Structure formats: C-alpha cells, structure tokens
From TrEMBL:
Organism: Kribbella shirazensis
Domain HTH araC/xylS-type, residue spans: 179-277
Keyword DNA-binding on entry: yes
Xref: PANTHER family: ARAC-FAMILY TRANSCRIPTIONAL REGULATOR (PTHR43280), TRANSCRIPTIONAL REGULATOR MTLR (PTHR43280:SF27)
UniProt-listed PROSITE patterns: HTH_ARAC_FAMILY_2
Molecular function via GO: DNA-binding transcription factor activity; sequence-specific DNA binding
InterPro entries: AraC-bd, Homeodomain-like_sf, HTH-like, HTH_AraC, RmlC-like_jellyroll
Keywords from the named record: DNA-binding, Transcription, Transcription regulation
Name this polypeptide is given: AraC-like DNA-binding protein
Annotated SMART domains: HTH_ARAC
Stored Pfam families: AraC_binding, HTH_18
Length: 279
C-alpha cells in the first residue's frame, strides 16, 4: 500500500538518467526516489499526483520534483499514447560540491525549492523543445544541455506543487501512514468516504487521525477528497459528453449544489465553463 522505492539505473558513460517514457497509458504507480526528476509531458493527458496534491496534466506539463517526493502520473485512458521526457539526477551527479560554486547560486536555489515540487506554466517553446530533445543526445551533450536547462529554469516563474504543510518524508512512520491513506483514497474517493473507516486503516482514532492528517499534509481529509473528486470531474468533463448531473454523481457527489460549490472553489469557474474552455 505504501509507495514503492525506486532506484533508477544509470547508463554507463554518464552519471544521471535521461529517457523517453512511452506507453499506451501511464498507470497509477505510487513511488519515490532519491533523485531529482524533471518531467515534460509530450503526449497524452491525465492526473498528476505529487505528495498530496492532485492536478490535471496535458502535453506541455513541466514539473521538477525534489528527492523523496512520492508521485505518479495516471493517464485518462489508453486511447492515445502517453509520452514524457524524463531526466533524473542526484544532487552530486557532477561532484559533491559542484552546485556550491558561486556561478550556480540560481540553480542551487531552484533545487532547494523543488523539495515541494515546482510547476512551470509559462516557459518558452524553445526551452520545452530543449528538454524534450535531451534523451536523444550523447552523454556529454546531455550534461551540458541539462545544466543550461536548469540555469534557464532558475529564472522562470514556478509554482510550488504541494501545499506548504506537506513535507516529503518527514519520517518513515508518518510517510507510510500518509501513503496508505492516499493510495486508498485514490481508489475509493468516488464512493462515500467516512472518517472512521480511513482512520482505521492506519490504526488511529478519528480525532487523532484528523489532527495527524492536517499536520502531515496541510489540509483536512475533506479538502483532499474534494481535490480528488474535482479532478475526476475535470477528466469526465473533457473526455465525455455526460451531463453535469451524471458527472457529479460519478465523481462522488450526491448533491449537485455541493458539487458546483466545490468545483468553483477549486477551479474558479462552473463545470460547464470548464468544459467549454478545455474542449
């Protein structure tokens, strides 16, 4: 039930990993690793899970994740191929003190901020193209290009992905409990979610669990479930022609007024406006 620890292999002749991930569909594979990960979605759409934040992704989605930050990408469906350019590297992949050099102060700050994950919404097309082309370069050229990419991203506007209260791996016990809960909710959020049932999963009383969840994640259980349900609704709004009433029910809402209210709180627009804007 907890995220799988992943140890990416490093090809011979280099000190980091750079590859194109191409599948019929990305499946939900909750995992973490000690490497930083720069991911550019080049084809397909779906839901991005990072820490306890749930958001849609589409082609062009660009995210830098710090070490030990649990994450996964789950495609909408297998109708279209999913593809991403992925680069994974450790802090010392160029030497233990490389990023301590004064000329890399900006990159050092970028890597420090990535502990919460960074989402880049507005970067030049040329930079996205350079990232997408990284897997096809020779190791020496990859290294030079990656440094250039990180230097340019350090000057780009980035939004933290996870909430301020979330820490990647505050302790093994805390992380394991959070991961059990998040994996369960990813599968069960479209059905009624009872506090007592979720607390029982991690052998805690409902009151203790409520305090624990808010401290560990930075939001309430209800807030997190609403994130999952609204993102499910977004997927259905953009990939089906179902009426909004049916989408509300399939997303876990038994009350249409509550669905509309929660949707507007998180997306700043009505479901019908979201459908029109994203089709």
């Amino acid at each position: 039930m907890k995220p799988r620890y992943e140890r990416p292999g490093v090809p011979s002749g280099t000190t980091f990993t750079c590859f194109t991930r191409r599948e019929a569909a990305f499946g939900f594979a909750w995992h973490f690793h000690r490497e930083y990960e720069l991911t550019l979605i080049t084809a397909g759409s779906g839901t991005r899970y990072v820490g306890t934040t749930v958001e849609r992704y589409v082609p062009g989605d660009l995210v830098l994740l710090g070490p030990d930050l649990p994450h996964t990408y789950a495609s909408d469906a297998a109708r279209h191929q999913s593809e991403a350019a992925v680069t994974q590297f450790r802090h010392d992949f160029l030497g233990a003190s490389f990023f301590e050099l004064p000329q890399f102060a900006g990159v050092r700050s970028l890597l420090s901020r990535s502990v919460r994950g960074l989402y880049f919404a507005d970067v030049p097309a040329e930079l996205r193209s350079d990232i997408a082309c990284l897997p096809g370069l020779t190791p020496a050229t990859q290294t030079v290009r990656l440094l250039d990419v990180l230097h340019r991203l350090a000057d780009a506007t980035a939004t933290p992905v996870t909430r301020p209260g979330y820490a990647a791996a505050p302790s093994t016990a805390v992380r394991d409990r959070v991961d059990v809960v998040c994996r369960y909710l990813q599968e069960a959020h479209t059905e009624p979610v009872l506090l007592d049932d979720v607390a029982r999963l991690v052998h805690m009383s409902p009151t203790s669990f409520s305090r624990f969840f808010r401290r560990a994640i930075g939001c309430t259980l209800t807030d997190y479930v609403n994130q999952l349900r609204v993102e499910t609704a977004c997927r259905l709004l953009t990939t089906t022609s179902l009426p909004v009433t049916d989408i509300a029910a399939r997303s876990g809402y038994r009350n249409l007024a509550n669905f509309n209210r929660r949707f507007r709180e998180l997306k700043a627009m009505r479901p019908t406006q979201y459908r029109a804007a994203h089709r």
